[in-house]
Amino acid sequence: EKAGYEHFMLKEIHEQVSAIHNTLAGKVSELEGTIDLKELNMSEEEIRKLSRVQILACGTSWHAGLLGKYLFEQLAGIHCDIDICSEYRYRSPVMNDGTLAIAITQSGETADTLAAVREIMSYNCPTLAITNVVGSTITREANSVLYTIAGPEIGVAATKTFSTQLILLYLLAVKFALARGKLSPDYVKRFITAIRKVPGQIQQILNQKEAIKECAENFANSKSYFFLGRHLNYPIALEGALKLKEISYLHAEGFAAGELKHGPIALLEKGTPVITIATRGQTYDKVLSNIKEVKARDAIVIAVADNTDTEIGKYADIVLTVPRSDELLSPLLSVVVLQLLAYYTALARGCSIDKPRNLAKSVTVE
Ligand code: F6R
Prior knowledge:
Blueprint: H1 8-14, H2 16-24, E1 28-29, E2 34-35, H3 44-49, E3 52-57, H4 59-76, E4 79-84, H5 85-88, E5 99-104, H6 111-121, E6 127-131, H7 137-141, E7 144-147, H8 160-179, H9 185-196, H10 198-207, H11 209-218, E8 224-229, H12 234-248, E9 251-256, E10 273-277, H13 284-295, E11 300-306, E12 318-322, H14 330-348
Parallel strand pairs: 3-4, 3-5, 5-6, 6-7, 8-9, 8-10, 10-11, 11-12
Antiparallel strand pairs: 1-2
Fructose -6-phosphate (F6R) binds at residues 58-61, 105-107, 110, 113, 157-158, 242, 246, 362-363.
């Protein structure tokens, strides 16, 4: 059942290649430059009238949602708020007309998420669920459902459900942008060509997993680990830290790289591993400055960078590479490196990877 893999988690990390392919299948037309999400049940007119998106999710799904916020605002120009579900109900949220709620939950059974959805639906706010489980509770409550086609995820740590949630958020944001005249059909054609290449690019990362394993083994006894990212890779830094905490029981924190100097930098010690996502993009130079700040404290920088980057080696102690991609899609690649790093760290520490202590696959208490 593990198809030759030692753990479900490793199998599921590898299955991202087919899970992303399957989630995209039938939804994109490269020829026409269109995105077809029938299950959304929204006309172009309704999409144009949206004034706000409200995302509701917990844990890893919340990290997917945080990237979604960047995408909805940057690509489609739609104001987007995101809340952790266990907070949403108790903070007296202000409702606006023209809001679409998007609840993201891999299992479709998370009690906090279901409670937040009931709350927002009590204001008659239309609600779209993104889930991996057909027939789960959320699918019976939300007005519409988009499924990630990841197949069953057995490992408690979410991997392929996360990357396929991201795929649906990319498609939604680009579809909304197209309907609202923010992106041209030509741009969308190029976007579709690029997103279709992602499974192959993930396969290239998987083919080089030994380098990630070696790095994980070298730092498996660290006292704590830091993860930095900016812009679209900030949510990925948070996700990398969460994966490591969950399965290796190492203390790990994710930060927006620019926020480090506002306090957390005090935690850095000689030898602290600091994973920094430094793929090329608009914040690349700023990330290099952040790397210098970290190096000045004698911490160790492990950079996740493009395989075409000949400069990064001058700044970072260790470089883990991903294929060069569109900046927009780089989170889909950098996350795979961080998933593998967490996996191999937990393996080196002899942890119970598929069933970490204190955690359950779906959390049905509030
Ligand atoms: C992390 C993880 C949890 C879940 C969270 C929400 O690996 O699995 O943080 O992401 O409990 O679960 P769903 O997506 O089922 O609502």
